[in-house]
Automatic annotation (TrEMBL):
<dbReference type="InterPro" id="IPR032710">
    <property type="entry name" value="NTF2-like_dom_sf"/>
</dbReference>
<feature type="domain" description="SnoaL-like">
    <location>
        <begin position="7"/>
        <end position="114"/>
    </location>
</feature>
<dbReference type="Pfam" id="PF12680">
    <property type="entry name" value="SnoaL_2"/>
</dbReference>
<protein>
    <recommendedName>
        <fullName>SnoaL-like domain-containing protein</fullName>
    </recommendedName>
</protein>
<dbReference type="InterPro" id="IPR037401">
    <property type="entry name" value="SnoaL-like"/>
</dbReference>
């Protein structure tokens, strides 16, 4: 499977809620970076699949049980895939809807994700999580 197909498979697994499939695509030494000022950036960089699963995926699943990660455009170059898209979901406590754009930069090594960088509107994420 080439890098583009592998990254597309990750988004399909997210859509199905198959987080174990996503974790299986991570290199054993993956470095995962959530966007600066994101509520989930407190562990940056998350190193290794277990840190990513516990520090990012489980928290997202709790806060946004219906979160959709909608990939819209893909760009492939060498060992990187860049993806534009949107996050949509409802915060489980505030019940506020989230609709935020993103850019994801995936780097692959030996057929696995070795680095991930997220760019998104962190203000929308923060306002969404708090009742004002």
């Amino acid at each position: 499977m080439d890098n583009l197909a592998r990254v597309k498979a990750v988004y399909q697994a997210f859509t199905r809620g198959a987080l174990t499939e996503v974790v299986e695509q991570l290199h054993h030494s993956v470095h995962w970076y959530e966007a600066e000022s994101s509520p989930y950036a407190d562990g940056n960089p998350y190193v290794g699949p277990d840190e990513v699963a516990g520090g990012v995926f489980q928290r997202l699943q709790k806060d946004y049980p219906d979160l959709q990660i909608l990939a819209e455009r893909y760009y492939e170059m060498d060992n990187k895939v860049v993806v534009e898209g949107r996050y949509k979901g409802l915060h489980h406590v505030t019940k506020k809807p989230l609709d935020a754009q993103f850019v994801h930069v995936w780097q692959l090594k030996d057929g696995r994700v070795s680095q991930f960088r997220q760019f998104t509107d962190t203000l929308k994420w923060r306002l969404n999580a708090f009742s004002l």
